[in-house]
Amino acid sequence: MGKYFGTDGFRGEANMVLTAEHAFRVGRFLGWYYTKKREESGQEGPAKIVIGKDTRRSSYMFEYSLAGGIVSSGCDAYLLHVTTTPSVAYIARVDDFDCGIMISASHNPYYDNGIKLINSQGEKMDDETIALIEDYLDGKSEVPFALKDRIGCTVDYVSGRNRYIGYLISLGIYSFKGIRVALDTANGSAWNVAKAVFDALGAKTFVINAEPDGLNINRDCGSTHIEHLQRFVVENGCDVGFAYDGDADRCLCVDEKGNLLSGDHILYIYGRYMKDRGKLLSNTVVTTIMSNFGLYKAFDECGIEYAKTKVGDKYVHEYMKEHGCRLGGEQSGHIIFSKYASTGDGILTSLKMMEVMLARKKKMSELSEGFTVYPQVLENVRVSDKAKALGDEAVQERIEGVRARLGAEGRILVRESGTEPVIRVMVEAESMETCHECVDSVVEALRKVAL
């Protein structure tokens, strides 16, 4: 993880942490870098970078700043305008762009924003290139301006977003006619994409939170406030509901009874569907360490193997690519279907869940049978030195004691936060009482060494 760029881009409050000058300089470096690479490889024509954005007010500022930097370095900037992160990844890959940029802070409030960098294969940018960008941001290197006819230009590329919509529609192998589907687009990137896809496939589509004003993205809506969609599905007699985050790279599901189906449920439902059809290559679903213990118990019951990575869809994708896995994701709803996409895609996830429901000829609530979510308790303990607190002998003794107590019927996860001065203590067990007792035991030991 770099000084500016984390696992999901350069993110922070607009004009406080992430400024228009940062965006201009990122564009400056990328425009120069890819122009230079094309020249060195003997490729004709200017380098091309495609840019998408979500609905935050500050996204316009960053779009123009990035584009200005890109063209001033001799590269062309193609503007998709408001679109989803996975659409940028798709277009970067299929239309032979040198890289893609998504302007979004995902599920964060409107006053935050971010710059996500995507390579020509539709994957997150490699650490080596990001390190070069950070050196440039810190003034450790300089790049020249393009002059005269070498200056780049901007291109309106809304047609790319439309082609992505067409691609999603092409993946719908069943008609949705007669199915009542509710969509919560979080006043974000999916607002002008998701309904078009579901309408084209024949669904009776109901959409909520699709009136972005630049300030209401993720505000009391979308996948981080699923309760509104749960209520809407029940009150309107819908068969299923899907909620997206601000840039639509993740999706949560609501069944016809109003029950939440997390990313873990989606992995279970689609993992079984793939296995039954002989499509689950290596018989493995890739998860992160934060997936519910009940998911692993359910996979054991149906003979599906699983891998666990660090938290972050970046790490899930890396494992999938290295080991040839077809399905992976996070509890939060970042689901990767590697046959169809190189990143998490909320709308694609919705379509895949619809496919299972229609192929199985079952209600969505019936598809999750066999997966029991284990009770979970998570508590954060603020400490002055995370490594020292976690390495304390008494703390380790408590952790091992809990691990022995739970055995094969639960688990404990104690880890340092990557963003705050806290230790996170999480326990999953068959009863909430056991969870609380185990968490309290470890938290007590941590507080004794917290300062």
Summary keywords:
seven-stranded mixed beta sheet, globular, alpha/beta, five-stranded mixed beta sheet, 451 residues, 15 helices
What structural category arises from helix and sheet content? Answer: alpha/beta
Give the CA-CA distance, first to last residue.
26 Å
Strand numbers in spatial order across the main sheet: 1-2-6-5-3-4-7
Roughly what percent helix? Answer: 25-40%
CA-based shape: globular
Beta-strand share of residues: 15-25%
Main sheet summary: 7 strands, mixed
The total beta strand count reads 19
Query: How many helix segments?
Result: 15
Radius of gyration: 23 Å
Can you walk me through this structure?
- This protein has 451 residues and is α/β, with parallel strands linked by helices.
- Helix 3 (85-94) crosses helix 5 (158-170) and helix 5 (158-170) packs across helix 6 (194-200).
- The relative contact order is 0.10.
- The chain has helices at residues 20-41, 58-72, 85-94, 127-137, 158-170, 194-200, 227-235, 263-276, 293-302, 313-323, 346-360, 364-367, 386-391, 393-406, 432-448, and strands at residues 5-6, 9-13, 48-53, 76-82, 99-103, 112-119, 154-156, 180-184, 204-208, 240-244, 251-255, 260-261, 284-288, 305-309, 327-329, 335-337, 376-382, 411-416, 422-428.
- The mean pLDDT is 95.
- The protein is 39% helix and 21% strand.
Short structural summary:
The chain is of the alpha/beta class and 451 residues long.
